[in-house]
Amino acid sequence: MIVRQFTCRAIINPHLHAHLRKPWGCRDMARPSSDLAAFREIFSRAKKIAIITGAGVSAESGVPTFRGAGGYWRKWQAQELAAPEAFSRNPSRVWEFYHYRREVMLTKIPNPAHLAIAECEDRLSKQGRQVTVITQNIDELHRRAGSKNILEIHGSLFKTRCMSCGHEASNYNSPICAALEGKGAPDPDTHDAQIPVQQLPRCEQTSCHGLLRPAVVWFGETLDSDILTNAEKVLDSCDLCLVVGTSSVVYPAAMFAPQVAAKGVPVAEFNMEDTPATMRFKFHFHGPCGTTLPAALARHDTEQNIE
């Protein structure tokens, strides 16, 4: 499966964009359907549903996406800071960026799209059916909404990893360390805090005290092999796939749904706009995910009312 061909996180290049937009050997492609009734019929029969989510699903909760026009923190785009080289050069600046994101996320709540996915998973599990969320998001809003079967392929804002001993742990402290309190303002005129490295978040394991980093997958880094293996199993076995709020420009996730579609499995895209992969899919539902998704995943007439 293509999951195994692309294991490092990166922005997809223009040649892959073209490959995604138009499958090899296809000259004229029909526009994906927006027939909700037809989707609901397929949904009613699906036993294993994979839901791939991206930044768009959290944008409706007010989470900055750092994509497109205005997608900057100070004067940097996310990919300029979410990189191991950036952390090596300036760990203080990168920690300010992630401190800002952590503090913002602590003020946000799941929106109707997150809640619809969680409710669907809970309801279908009682019918012996499976829903798995494969998310690129690091905000944990799916978890807070109640989803349990989640693969966070890019990690979590609220986990840290020690650069010395490798210990990984959840961390919801606000602020994560005293030196970051009041720091991280996104305004482009804000000066770097230039926090001494010894005052940045440190490992609390006995006799370690190494520098902590966010336990997220930065651009150029390899995704966790266990999570990739589990994602591969889910995508290989699903009989319906939803792609929700993802731009389809960051791989390997950008390749997941097109590969599923190439096997003949129905794929439905829910997004505010077309993506490079849209023409690959059976369905495309335009609009805010918090509006389109609840109707798509609501209880079907054929479902047994099991409580």
From TrEMBL:
<dbReference type="GO" id="GO:0061697">
    <property type="term" value="F:protein-glutaryllysine deglutarylase activity"/>
</dbReference>
<dbReference type="InterPro" id="IPR029035">
    <property type="entry name" value="DHS-like_NAD/FAD-binding_dom"/>
</dbReference>
<dbReference type="GO" id="GO:0000035">
    <property type="term" value="F:acyl binding"/>
</dbReference>
<feature type="binding site">
    <location>
        <position position="203"/>
    </location>
    <ligand>
        <name>Zn(2+)</name>
    </ligand>
</feature>
<dbReference type="GO" id="GO:0005739">
    <property type="term" value="C:mitochondrion"/>
</dbReference>
<feature type="binding site">
    <location>
        <position position="289"/>
    </location>
    <ligand>
        <name>NAD(+)</name>
    </ligand>
</feature>
<dbReference type="InterPro" id="IPR050134">
    <property type="entry name" value="NAD-dep_sirtuin_deacylases"/>
</dbReference>
<keyword id="KW-0862">Zinc</keyword>
<feature type="binding site">
    <location>
        <begin position="136"/>
        <end position="139"/>
    </location>
    <ligand>
        <name>NAD(+)</name>
    </ligand>
</feature>
<dbReference type="InterPro" id="IPR027546">
    <property type="entry name" value="Sirtuin_class_III"/>
</dbReference>
<keyword id="KW-0809">Transit peptide</keyword>
<feature type="binding site">
    <location>
        <begin position="245"/>
        <end position="247"/>
    </location>
    <ligand>
        <name>NAD(+)</name>
    </ligand>
</feature>
<keyword id="KW-0539">Nucleus</keyword>
<dbReference type="InterPro" id="IPR026590">
    <property type="entry name" value="Ssirtuin_cat_dom"/>
</dbReference>
<dbReference type="GO" id="GO:0005829">
    <property type="term" value="C:cytosol"/>
</dbReference>
<feature type="binding site">
    <location>
        <begin position="54"/>
        <end position="73"/>
    </location>
    <ligand>
        <name>NAD(+)</name>
    </ligand>
</feature>
<comment type="function">
    <text>NAD-dependent lysine demalonylase, desuccinylase and deglutarylase that specifically removes malonyl, succinyl and glutaryl groups on target proteins. Has weak NAD-dependent protein deacetylase activity; however this activity may not be physiologically relevant in vivo.</text>
</comment>
<dbReference type="GO" id="GO:0036054">
    <property type="term" value="F:protein-malonyllysine demalonylase activity"/>
</dbReference>
<feature type="binding site">
    <location>
        <position position="98"/>
    </location>
    <ligand>
        <name>substrate</name>
    </ligand>
</feature>
<feature type="active site" description="Proton acceptor">
    <location>
        <position position="154"/>
    </location>
</feature>
<feature type="binding site">
    <location>
        <position position="165"/>
    </location>
    <ligand>
        <name>Zn(2+)</name>
    </ligand>
</feature>
<dbReference type="GO" id="GO:0008270">
    <property type="term" value="F:zinc ion binding"/>
</dbReference>
<feature type="binding site">
    <location>
        <position position="101"/>
    </location>
    <ligand>
        <name>substrate</name>
    </ligand>
</feature>
<keyword id="KW-0808">Transferase</keyword>
<dbReference type="Pfam" id="PF02146">
    <property type="entry name" value="SIR2"/>
</dbReference>
<keyword id="KW-0496">Mitochondrion</keyword>
<dbReference type="GO" id="GO:0036055">
    <property type="term" value="F:protein-succinyllysine desuccinylase activity"/>
</dbReference>
<protein>
    <recommendedName>
        <fullName>NAD-dependent protein deacylase sirtuin-5, mitochondrial</fullName>
        <ecNumber>2.3.1.-</ecNumber>
    </recommendedName>
</protein>
<keyword id="KW-0479">Metal-binding</keyword>
<dbReference type="InterPro" id="IPR026591">
    <property type="entry name" value="Sirtuin_cat_small_dom_sf"/>
</dbReference>
<feature type="binding site">
    <location>
        <begin position="271"/>
        <end position="273"/>
    </location>
    <ligand>
        <name>NAD(+)</name>
    </ligand>
</feature>
<comment type="similarity">
    <text>Belongs to the sirtuin family. Class III subfamily.</text>
</comment>
<dbReference type="GO" id="GO:0017136">
    <property type="term" value="F:histone deacetylase activity, NAD-dependent"/>
</dbReference>
<feature type="domain" description="Deacetylase sirtuin-type">
    <location>
        <begin position="29"/>
        <end position="303"/>
    </location>
</feature>
<feature type="binding site">
    <location>
        <position position="208"/>
    </location>
    <ligand>
        <name>Zn(2+)</name>
    </ligand>
</feature>
<keyword id="KW-0963">Cytoplasm</keyword>
<feature type="binding site">
    <location>
        <position position="162"/>
    </location>
    <ligand>
        <name>Zn(2+)</name>
    </ligand>
</feature>
<dbReference type="InterPro" id="IPR003000">
    <property type="entry name" value="Sirtuin"/>
</dbReference>
<dbReference type="GO" id="GO:0070403">
    <property type="term" value="F:NAD+ binding"/>
</dbReference>
<dbReference type="GO" id="GO:0005634">
    <property type="term" value="C:nucleus"/>
</dbReference>
<keyword id="KW-0520">NAD</keyword>
